[in-house]
Every structure is written in structure tokens, then in C-alpha cells.
Task: inverse folding
């Protein structure tokens, strides 16, 4: 493959936050406090504009890498700086660059940053985080991917650890160690894959796998391919998080500052599901097909489990955090239905979840700024004192529970389509997943009733001010996306259609093989091992 | 796509746009209020009862009027366009058979099959486009007066516009997905409007109940939609329902679950879709939300019970009827699972709800149960293949039920007016008696909706009385002069035809519906007797009124009633069987017009047979309607209930039955015990505390503790072994040095001795080594 070594738009988008980071380094915390904020915001907006330019140049009909750039870095080891986007990563880059300015703008008046100080450090971390996130989505080299993957941990660790709530250190350490533990396995697996392939460039590895030039033996669950697949998968599953590896998430969310939660839910979790689509499926097709029922089953358990635990929460932020487990269970189900509809639905659900859960965290943050508590019992009748806030909260809540006409529904519907049309998953998956949709309504309506409906019976709530213009400005892009995706989803599907179809076509022979040969899938295998 | 909205194929797109646009404009622009401290509030002398110690939003009159104007313009525009389409539709020859008005566009493109969104006008849509906008416009006019004193009137108009827009979207949709979107948005609107007064616990509980119960059904319906799409690759009505090959394929393919028991794909999809309607149209066992739904403002009840929500449920299954009947032939005794399901659920619900209607004291509750019961009629009719009769009853029911609800709203308003009057009166007394806190010490529990508090209202609110009677006799199916009679009679005629052939489902439907019709006539007669007959039973009823004949409230609330009276009485004349003596000759000289228009919606194979005229069902209709009405008359009109007297029904029915009926067969309690409380307990104690905190997080903590413990162990090992060796060597050297230091005493003699000893030692070693080497 030949790629121009001139500066591509992807590289510009990737490094714009770094430029901002460098400039911020030389600013004076005491003297230029406002300037620091606006510089960070300015660069995040510039990054967004650059990513928009990428989207305009993006050709929907091309299923391969676009806007790519490659510079050899360590040719002897086959490591290169290799960036580019396809239909899936394009959307996720856009998600990151949209969420970031919102998160930065929402931090301007955050009480906790005023209180703990270190404004400059805060915005430095934000820009570092943005750089690393975009990096994860555009990089096509396994080693560099791994570096970006790990770098995202650092700023988030400090965001939670420095500007978090009471129990922040515990949450930050748990978040860091849990994710680290997973990525070590991935490092081993990717070193092995790179060593075998002689290159770390993902498109080349995938091409080798496809042509049969490179093949990892896959016979039973204790085979090379199976282990490599799981090495990647576990790292991603922790990040998503897939049940039962989710227990770091509620703590991290509850303790993180508002912007941290927004980014965490909005983008960081999607790195896991993105990784599954980008690496697991094309590099280990047989293992993906064989493991699909098991991973999808974990996804379905997550859907129901997350909903059920959400319902029991008394803390609004925790409720939203567990709802993420539920929503991302849908994404995992969609991916491992191994159908084009399922994967596209999953990708759209990633975007939708980022928008609506990000929105919910922003709203909870606004309540927290006013009352300094996240317990539902402290509220009641908020709709009456803050009608605008109540109305917007209702829209975002409904989008989260998948009301048709809003964004959440489209992804869920498409994932269900994919699940029912899947050759590797049975009907029961769809049946149980729909049970999760019912329960989503229950916990969202429960939360809405506790916080917004009823009489204003707490004296502290009686004169809460409604949203100010900054808060409205933060919510406007979220609302626009909610309606846009909900009412006109074809624009979004067009972007990823070609990529998803190409991916599924590549998997199809393996799906057929498993279906026709009657060879036991990993699930059967696992059962046999347990029985034996 | 060459869009030209003056083209009849594109015009339907614009019908829902008016109300939807009104929703957006009111929400974003005209719903403005000014926040003033409660102490500055002029209307309540500084003490706003609902905003104690808070700032109060004051909606300006301009905002109020602007919202009303925008809302009204939206629906009137929708009504005008609907009428255009309607007249175009009824003047088209055999609409539905060959031609339909339709257009579409791509919506969701996931590679295999693009989902298209579009509009479709066939006979079914045409008739709905007649009924829905008229009912909605009436409800809007009515709301101007009904909500005149509510501080959130603008918000009300925005939500009810969205409600109307969603319903119209559903009606013009050409595919199940768009229908489902409208369906769910309506669910949301019902949630927000039932809980419109969200401060009240009863209101928000009812709202949540309505949304959750219908949502359970909707999600199952969604599963049916997804399954249908997976099977056929399309959700377009015409492509599925007017395509014999697709229907054949669906009825021959075994279903993904229960397929081995002989259930076909169309059967399973059908049952999933019908469950959606069981929720939306409040059929047993998901009917529990509808009686509570009267917590919303009365115009909302009219909207839910007549124009939109519950009608949408029945409309959807009428629309999907060929799918349910695929592979079956109900007119020749071959029933599919979905048909039997509908016949059983429908006929049971019709009778079941009617029994509860008999004992209700709340004027709106009686109507709520009557709605459930009447929807059961339609569902049962569909179950026996009486496709047109079910639709006919849907239309007539919508008119008389809208009329009844708005009349009952007027009754309630009048009673509240009376209450206000009495309250002020008392207040004056109190001041004289120096009992300033009368209200606080003795809370005045007056229920303006309790019929036992009414009586004699026919002289206080005559227009409402006539409207109520017109709606009531239509609901009761009083023969010949009401719309309800003709539609109910057609259902019974269809059932009778099946019964004479000896088929099971029609026999069941005939018996159950006849009994239900009897009870319907009885409770309607009872309701009118209790409300309007005799003398006022309370002081409030004595002073009931709508605030003078010229007030805006009185006018806007009575105008819709007057508009709807003729529909409730005469709408039935479009569907008179031609063989019916006298009436047939007058109204249907060229065959039943409604029947002949609607039947072309479906393929010929599914078109219902026109039942031959038979006296038995007609006489049954006569008998049950007049008999039930007469019984009510005997108990409640001949000797109207007087103040302080008990409800006669309480005397007649055994106490246990009366209590069971009043408590809705204890179903709500049962659901609470079986579903709500266990799942709350399960989620809190088992899933959240035990599994999540205990096992999963506990496991992580265990690993962390284990890691800590290993770390401590390593630290110890480190101390002994690694540090032992590592530190040992330098320490040894140091110790040696310390020991060696003792050598350096600074005394010359000792040095000399040491030097000699060293020299001797070296000499000794030299001698020994050379001798050894020499040997």
C-alpha cells in the first residue's frame, strides 16, 4: 500500500489538541486563568472543525481506509506511524471531537475546579485526553494503538483522582489498575500477532489473514487463535465494560467530575467496542464466529443486569452509570450478531449512547452544582422550579430509554434486526434483549419521577435557578444530535454502510463454515469442558 | 423525488406537520412565563397555594393567547388537508383495490434492505382522516375553556398538539415502523398529559403506570415488527398485506418459538402485534392503566379514549388484519391463532370491563370502563373476521365517546364551580364566626367527580345534559336513532352468522357481547340517572354551573358538544344494512356505503362476507339495549336517589361482589404483589446488593486483597532473602572493617609485632610452598 507522506487531514486532526497542549504549557496559571480555558476550548473546537473537514472529504462508498498517512518509524520491527479512517472510525472520531468541546465548556463554571484549583493542569489533561482518544480511533498500527490506548488512562486517572468526589482515590486506582490488567493481555497478544505477521500495520495483517497467508490455528477453545482473540477481547471487555467486568465503572463515574463522566461515558467506553470491531473480528474471524454466542450472551446479561441494578440505585449518577452497562450490552450484542445490520446498529448505538448518556451526566452535573448532592431523595418537584431544565431532562431521558423518534431507538431497533437475522445467535438473544428495553423504561421513569415530579417538599429546592445560558448552550448540541439521529438516521448509516458490509463479507465464509460443518462452536466446547 | 404537495400522493405528508409544528413553536417560542416571588403574586394575595415560598411563573395573557392560536391553527390546517384527502378518497372509484395515494423516501439504509418511510391513503386511512381531525379540533376548542385557569395552559397546548401530530402520523403511515413511531410518541404524550399536574402523587403514579404498562406491550410489538422485517425484508403495509405470496410464505413458515407446536410465523408475529394493541387499547390483562388515566385533564381523557391513543391500538390491528387471517378463513370456520386470541381476549374484556362499570361512583370511571369494554367489542369482532364491523364501531365509538368525555368534563367543571361557590360562601361565614382556619382544621373532602354528590344537574347545565344523553344512548346502543346501535348490531350480525354455522369463536363472541351490551345500557342509564335526574344531593350540585351562558368557558366547552351530537347520533346511517326494513331503503338503497368503501382495503380473499339480514341479532340488539336501559331507568330515574341515600346497586348486589367490582377484581393489588414489589426487592437486595456489591465487586476486592497479601509476603521475602543477601555483603564488609579498625591502635610496638608476624607468616608460606613445589 502506498500512502502519501504529506500531512493528511487525519494527522492534523490528531495533533491539533497537542498543539493546544503545548501552548497551554507556557501559560501562567494565575495571570491567564480565563485565557487558559478559552485556549483549551478553542483548540477543541478547531479539532472538531478539522474532523468535520475529514467528514466532508470522506467517501461513503469506499469501504477501505481513507485520508490515510503512513511514515515508517521502526522499519526493522515493522512499526510505523499509520493513521487513517474508515466508516466506523470516522463516526467515532466525530463523536470524540463533538463531546470534547462540550465537556470543556461545561467545566468553565464547575465549582470543584474553582475549589481545588490547578486550572491549567485540568485543561492540559483534557487536551491530552482528546489527543489520545482520537489517536485510538485513527491509528492503524498495533504498537502505536497500544500506546494511545494506555495514554488515555493517565489523564483520566488524574481527572478522577484530583477533581473527583469524596472517594476519588479509590475510584481512580480501581479504574487504572482494572484497565491496566486487561491491556497487559492485549500487549502480549499483539506482540505475538505482529511477530507472526512481520508487521504491526492492521490493514496488512488483516489482508494476510484474509488471503490465508497468516493463519492462527483454531481448533477448540484452547487454541492459539482463541487465546489471541481473548487477549484482545478481555482488554476491550473491561473497557466497555462487559458484564461481569463492570464494577470499576460505577465508582469511576460517581467519583469523576462532570466532564470526566461525560468523556468516560461518551467516548472512552466506546474504545472497547470499537476495538472489538476493528481488531477482534477481522484478525481472528474463526474465533469471533465461535465465541460470538458466548460474548453476545454476556452482552445480553449486561443489558438486563445493568437495567436491574440501575433500578435499585438511590444516587442519580450511579443509576446513569449502570444504565451504561445496559446500553453497551446492546452494542456488544449487535457486534457479535456478526451481521451488517447488527454492527451498524451497534456503531450507531455507540454514538447515541455517547450523546444521551453524556447529556444525562451533564444534567446531573447541573443539579449537583446547585445542591451538592446526587441522591434522588434530596430532590422532588424539580420540574416545577426549573421547567426548562425539566423539559430538557425529559427529552434526554427518553432518548436514553429508546423512544422512537429519538436517537436511542434507531440503534436498538437495528441491533434487534441484526440479532434476529443472525446466523450465530438464536431468537432467545433478541427476546431477552427486548426485556432490557422494557426495564429501561422502568428505571428512567422511576428516576424522573423521584427527581422531577411531585411536590417541592424540600425547602432547599424551592428557589433553585433554572438553566443559565451557558448550560443551555452546552445542551443544545446534545439535543440537536438526539433529534437528528432519531429522525434522519440514514445520513449516519450511509457513512458506515460500506465498511460494515465489507467486514461482514469477510466473516461470511467462516460463519457459513461453522453453520454447515456442524463443528461445535466454542460454546459447545466450553460446555463439554465443564461437563467433562 | 419530485415532491409536489398539491399532488394528492404527497399531501398526506403535510397532515401531521401542522400539529407537530405547533408543538415546536409553542414549546420554543410562545410558552413564556415571568417569574415573580410568591409574595408579589396579585391573584392570590401573596399566598399562592401551589407555590408556597417559591417564585411563581406567571404566564402572560399574550403567551396564553398566542399558544392557543398556534395550536388551533395547527389542527385546523390538519383538518382542512384531511378533508381534502377524504373527499378525494371517497370520490375515487374502488380506492384501495387498484389505486392508493402513496409516496415514500429512504430512511434507514443498512445494506440489505433499505427501510422506506412513506404515506399511504387507502379506505381505512380515508375514514380515519375524517374522524380523527374532527374529534381533535373539538377537543382543542374545548380545551380553551377547560384549561383557561391553568397556569400551564401553553404547555398543555404544546403537548396536545404533539399528541394530535403523532396520531395523524400513525394514521397516514405506510409502514409499521412509522406507525410504531407515532404509537410510541403518543405513549409519551399520554404519560406527560396524564401526569400533567405532576405535583399530585395520583397523577404521576397514573402517568408512570400508563407508560410502563403500555411500554411492556409495545416492546413485544416491536419484537413482532423486527421479526416481520427479518422474514419479509419490508415493513410496508401494501407490500406485505396485499401480497398473497408473502402472506402464504408467512403462514407456512414455522415460527421461531413454538414453531414445533404448529405455530406459523404469521401467527407469532400476529400475536406479538396484538399484544401491542392489548396494551395500547387497554385489553385484559393490561387494561389496568386506563381507569387511572383519568387523572389527566378531561380533554386529555377525550383524546386518549376517543380520538387517539386507544383508537390507534384497534386501528393498528385492523390495519394488520390480513396478516392475522393469513392461512385462515374465519367465514368458513378456519381460525388462526391470532384470530382466536383476539376473539377470546376481546369478548372477555368486553364483559369483564362492563361488570366493573356497573358499580363505579366516579363519573369518568364509568366512561373509562365503558371504553375498555367497547374496545373489547372491536377486538372480538376482528377475531371473528368482522373486519368492517370492527372498524365501523371504532369510528362511531370515537364520536360518542369524545362527546361523553367532554360532557363529563363539563359536569365536573360545573361541580367545581359549585364547590367554589360553596367554599366562598363558607368563607364568609367563617369570618363572621371568627374561624379563620376552617379549611386547615376540617379539610373539605369534596370530590367533584363523585356521582353521588350530583343529581338534578339537568336543570343546571341543560346543554351538557342533552349532549350527555345523546352520547349515552349511542353508547348504550338504543335502537335505530343512535350510531352505536348500527355498529354494534353489525358486529352481532356477523357473530350470529358464524354461530348459525356452528363455529365456536362467533358463538362465544355473540353471547359475551350480548351480555356486555346489556350491562352497557344499564350502567349508562344509571350514570345519567345519578348525574342528571332528581334533585341536587349536595349544596355544590345546587350551585353547579358553567359560569354564565356568555362566558368564554361556557361557550368553548359547549360548542364542541353541539358539534359532536349529530355525529354521535347519525354517523351510523352510513353503514345501515340494505336489507334492514325502512332504514335500509332510506340510507342504503345501493348497498351498505361504509361496507362497500372500506372492504377494498384488503385483498378480496380477506374481504368479509356481508351477513344476510337476520332478525335474531337485531332483536337481540333491541332487547339488550332497551332492557338494560329500562333496568337503569327503574332503579335511578323512576325514583331518583335522594341526598343521604345509598346507591341502589349496593343494595342489590351482595357485598362481596360489590367490593370485588369496586376493587377492580383486586387485579391492581395482585400485580403489585406479584410483579412490582418482588422486582423491587429483587433488584435492590439480590441483584444490586448481593450480586453486584457482594459477589462481583467483592471478587475484585478479594483479588486486590490477595494482591496486597502477596505483596506483603514478597516484602517479607525481600527482607530476608534478597535484602538478606544484598544487604549482607556490604554489612559483612562494614563489620570486617569495624573489626579491622581495632588493629589500628596507633601504638608503634603493636605495629612492629604485627609487621614481624606478617613477615614470619610470609616467610613460612614461602618455605612451605617451595618445598611442596620441589616435591
Result:
Amino acid at each position: 500500500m502506498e500512502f502519501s507522506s504529506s500531512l493528511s487531514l487525519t494527522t492534523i486532526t490528531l495533533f491539533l489538541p497537542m498543539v493546544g497542549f503545548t501552548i497551554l504549557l507556557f501559560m501562567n496559571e494565575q495571570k491567564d486563568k480565563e485565557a487558559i480555558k478559552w485556549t483549551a476550548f478553542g483548540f477543541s473546537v478547531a479539532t472538531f472543525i478539522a474532523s468535520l473537514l475529514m467528514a466532508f472529504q470522506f467517501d461513503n462508498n469506499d469501504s477501505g481506509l481513507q485520508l490515510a498517512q503512513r511514515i515508517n518509524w521502526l522499519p526493522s520491527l515493522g512499526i510505523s506511524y499509520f493513521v487513517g479512517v474508515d466508516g466506523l472510525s470516522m463516526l467515532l472520531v466525530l463523536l470524540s471531537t463533538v463531546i470534547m468541546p462540550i465537556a470543556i465548556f461545561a467545566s468553565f463554571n464547575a465549582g470543584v475546579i474553582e475549589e481545588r484549583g490547578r486550572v491549567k493542569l485540568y485543561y492540559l489533561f483534557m487536551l491530552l485526553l482528546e489527543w489520545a482518544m482520537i489517536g485510538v480511533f485513527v491509528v492503524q498500527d498495533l504498537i502505536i494503538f497500544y500506546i494511545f490506548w494506555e495514554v488515555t488512562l493517565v489523564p483520566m486517572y488524574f481527572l478522577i483522582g484530583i477533581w473527583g468526589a469524596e472517594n476519588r482515590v479509590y475510584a481512580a486506582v480501581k479504574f487504572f489498575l482494572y484497565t491496566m490488567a486487561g491491556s497487559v493481555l492485549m500487549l502480549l497478544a499483539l506482540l505475538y500477532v505482529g511477530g507472526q505477521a512481520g508487521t504491526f500495520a492492521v490493514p496488512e495483517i488483516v489482508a494476510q489473514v484474509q488471503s490465508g497467508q497468516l493463519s492462527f490455528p483454531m481448533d477448540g477453545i484452547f487454541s492459539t487463535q482463541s487465546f489471541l482473540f481473548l487477549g484482545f477481547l478481555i482488554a476491550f471487555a473491561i473497557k466497555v465494560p462487559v458484564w461481569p467486568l463492570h464494577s470499576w465503572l460505577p465508582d469511576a463515574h460517581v467519583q469523576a467530575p462532570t466532564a470526566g463522566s461525560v468523556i468516560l461515558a461518551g467516548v472512552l467506553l466506546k474504545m472497547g467496542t470499537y476495538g472489538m470491531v476493528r481488531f477482534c473480528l477481522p484478525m481472528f474471524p474463526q474465533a469471533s464466529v465461535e465465541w460470538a454466542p458466548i460474548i453476545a450472551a454476556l452482552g445480553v446479561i449486561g443489558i438486563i443486569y445493568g437495567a436491574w441494578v440501575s433500578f435499585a440505585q438511590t444516587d442519580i449518577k450511579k443509576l446513569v452509570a449502570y444504565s451504561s452497562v445496559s446500553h453497551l450490552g446492546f452494542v456488544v450484542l449487535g457486534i457479535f450478531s456478526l451481521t451488517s445490520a447488527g454492527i451498524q446498529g451497534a456503531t450507531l448505538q455507540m454514538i447515541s449512547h455517547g450523546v444521551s448518556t453524556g447529556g444525562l451526566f451533564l444534567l446531573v452535573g447541573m443539579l449537583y452544582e446547585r445542591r451538592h448532592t446526587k441522591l434522588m431523595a434530596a430532590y422532588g418537584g424539580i420540574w416545577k422550579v426549573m421547567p426548562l431544565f425539566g423539559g430538557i431532562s425529559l427529552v434526554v431521558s427518553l432518548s436514553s430509554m429508546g423512544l422512537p423518534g429519538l436517537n436511542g431507538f434507531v440503534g436498538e431497533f437495528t441491533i434487534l434486526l441484526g440479532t434476529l437475522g443472525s446466523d450465530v445467535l438464536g431468537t432467545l438473544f433478541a427476546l431477552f434483549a427486548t426485556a432490557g428495553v422494557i426495564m429501561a423504561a422502568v428505571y428512567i421513569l422511576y428516576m424522573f419521577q423521584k427527581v422531577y415530579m411531585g411536590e417541592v417538599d424540600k425547602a432547599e429546592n424551592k428557589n433553585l435557578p433554572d438553566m443559565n445560558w451557558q448550560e443551555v448552550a452546552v445542551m443544545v448540541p446534545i439535543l440537536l444530535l438526539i433529534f437528528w439521529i432519531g429522525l434522519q438516521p440514514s445520513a449516519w448509516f450511509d457513512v458506515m454502510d460500506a465498511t460494515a458490509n465489507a467486514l461482514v463479507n469477510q466473516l461470511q465464509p467462516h460463519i457459513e463454515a461453522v453453520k454447515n460443518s456442524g463443528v461445535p462452536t466454542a460454546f459447545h466446547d466450553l460446555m463439554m469442558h465443564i461437563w467433562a | 423525488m419530485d415532491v409536489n404537495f398539491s399532488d394528492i400522493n404527497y399531501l398526506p405528508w403535510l397532515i401531521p406537520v401542522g400539529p407537530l409544528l405547533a408543538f415546536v413553536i409553542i414549546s420554543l417560542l410562545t410558552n413564556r412565563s415571568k417569574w415573580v416571588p410568591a409574595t408579589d403574586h396579585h391573584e392570590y394575595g401573596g399566598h399562592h397555594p401551589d407555590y408556597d415560598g417559591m417564585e411563581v411563573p406567571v404566564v402572560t395573557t399574550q403567551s396564553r393567547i398566542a399558544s392557543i392560536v398556534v395550536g388551533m391553527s395547527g389542527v385546523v390546517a390538519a383538518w382542512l388537508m384531511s378533508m381534502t384527502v377524504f373527499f378525494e378518497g371517497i370520490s375515487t372509484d374502488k380506492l384501495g383495490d387498484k389505486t392508493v395515494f402513496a409516496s415514500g423516501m429512504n430512511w434507514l439504509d443498512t445494506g440489505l434492505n433499505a427501510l422506506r418511510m412513506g404515506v399511504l391513503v387507502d379506505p381505512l386511512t380515508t375514514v380515519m382522516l375524517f374522524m380523527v381531525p374532527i374529534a381533535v379540533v373539538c377537543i382543542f376548542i374545548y380545551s380553551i375553556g377547560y384549561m383557561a385557569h391553568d397556569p400551564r395552559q401553553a404547555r398543555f397546548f404544546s403537548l396536545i398538539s404533539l399528541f394530535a401530530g403523532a396520531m395523524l402520523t400513525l394514521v397516514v403511515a405506510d409502514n409499521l415502523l412509522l406507525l410504531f413511531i407515532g404509537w410510541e410518541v403518543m405513549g409519551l404524550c399520554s404519560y406527560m398529559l396524564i401526569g400533567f399536574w405532576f405535583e399530585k402523587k395520583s397523577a404521576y403514579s397514573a402517568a408512570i403506570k400508563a407508560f410502563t404498562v403500555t411500554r411492556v406491550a409495545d416492546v413485544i410489538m416491536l419484537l413482532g415488527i423486527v421479526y416481520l422485517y427479518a422474514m419479509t425484508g419490508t415493513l410496508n403495509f401494501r407490500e406485505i398485506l396485499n401480497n398473497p405470496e408473502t402472506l402464504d410464505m408467512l403462514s407456512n413458515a414455522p415460527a421461531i418459538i413454538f414453531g414445533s407446536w404448529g405455530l406459523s410465523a404469521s401467527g407469532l408475529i400476529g400475536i406479538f402485534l396484538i399484544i401491542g394493541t392489548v396494551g395500547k387499547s387497554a385489553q385484559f390483562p393490561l387494561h389496568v392503566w386506563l381507569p387511572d388515566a383519568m387523572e389527566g385533564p378531561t380533554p386529555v381523557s377525550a383524546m386518549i379514549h376517543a380520538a387517539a391513543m386507544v383508537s390507534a391500538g384497534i386501528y393498528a390491528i385492523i390495519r394488520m388484519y390480513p396478516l392475522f387471517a393469513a392461512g385462515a378463513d374465519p367465514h368458513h370456520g378456519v381460525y388462526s391463532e391470532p384470530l382466536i386470541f383476539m376473539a377470546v381476549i376481546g369478548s372477555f374484556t368486553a364483559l369483564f370491563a362492563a361488570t366493573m362499570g356497573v358499580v363505579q361512583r366516579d363519573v369518568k370511571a364509568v366512561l373509562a370502563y365503558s371504553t375498555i369494554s367497547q374496545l373489547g367489542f372491536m377486538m372480538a369482532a376482528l377475531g371473528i373476521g368482522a373486519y368492517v364491523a370492527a372498524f365501523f364501531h371504532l369510528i362511531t365509538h370515537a364520536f360518542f365517546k369524545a362527546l361523553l368525555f367532554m360532557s363529563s368534563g363539563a359536569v365536573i367543571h360545573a361541580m367545581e364551580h359549585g364547590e367554589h361557590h360553596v367554599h366562598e360562601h363558607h368563607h364568609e361565614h367563617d369570618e363572621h364566626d371568627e374561624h379563620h382556619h376552617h379549611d386547615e382544621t376540617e379539610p373539605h373532602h369534596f370530590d367533584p367527580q363523585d356521582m353521588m354528590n350530583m343529581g338534578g344537574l339537568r336543570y343546571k347545565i341543560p346543554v351538557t345534559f342533552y349532549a350527555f344523553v345523546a352520547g349515552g344512548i349511542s353508547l348504550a346502543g338504543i335502537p335505530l336513532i343512535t350510531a352505536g346501535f348500527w355498529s354494534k348490531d353489525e358486529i352481532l350480525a356477523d357473530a350470529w352468522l358464524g354461530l348459525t354455522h356452528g363455529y365456536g369463536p362467533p358463538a362465544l363472541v355473540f353471547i359475551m357481547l350480548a351480555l356486555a351490551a346489556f350491562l352497557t345500557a344499564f350502567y349508562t342509564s344509571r350514570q345519567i340517572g345519578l348525574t342528571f335526574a332528581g334533585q341536587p344531593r349536595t349544596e355544590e350540585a345546587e350551585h353547579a354551573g358553567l359560569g354564565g351562558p356568555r362566558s368564554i368557558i361556557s361557550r368553548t366547552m359547549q360548542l364542541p358538544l353541539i358539534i359532536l351530537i349529530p355525529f354521535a347520533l347519525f354517523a351510523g346511517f352510513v353503514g345501515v344494512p340494505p336489507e334492514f326494513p325502512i332504514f335500509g331503503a332510506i340510507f342504503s338503497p345501493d348497498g351498505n356505503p361504509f361496507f362497500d368503501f372500506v372492504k377494498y382495503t384488503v385483498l378480496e380473499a380477506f374481504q368479509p362476507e356481508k351477513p344476510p339480514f337476520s332478525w335474531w341479532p337485531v332483536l337481540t340488539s333491541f332487547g339488550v339495549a332497551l332492557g338494560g336501559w329500562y333496568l337503569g331507568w327503574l332503579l335511578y330515574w323512576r325514583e331518583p336517589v335522594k341526598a343521604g341515600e345509598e346507591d341502589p346497586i349496593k343494595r342489590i348486589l351482595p357485598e362481596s361482589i360489590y367490593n370485588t367490582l369496586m376493587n377492580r377484581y383486586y387485579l391492581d393489588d395482585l400485580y403489585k404483589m406479584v410483579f412490582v414489589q418482588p422486582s423491587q426487592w429483587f433488584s435492590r437486595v439480590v441483584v444490586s446488593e448481593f450480586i453486584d456489591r457482594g459477589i462481583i465487586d467483592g471478587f475484585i476486592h478479594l483479588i486486590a486483597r490477595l494482591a496486597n497479601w502477596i505483596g506483603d509476603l514478597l516484602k517479607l521475602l525481600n527482607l530476608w532473602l534478597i535484602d538478606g543477601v544484598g544487604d549482607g555483603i556490604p554489612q559483612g564488609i562494614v563489620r570486617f572493617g569495624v573489626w579491622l579498625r581495632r588493629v589500628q591502635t596507633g601504638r608503634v610496638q603493636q605495629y612492629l609485632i604485627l609487621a614481624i608476624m606478617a613477615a614470619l607468616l610470609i616467610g613460612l608460606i614461602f618455605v612451605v610452598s617451595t618445598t611442596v613445589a620441589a616435591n
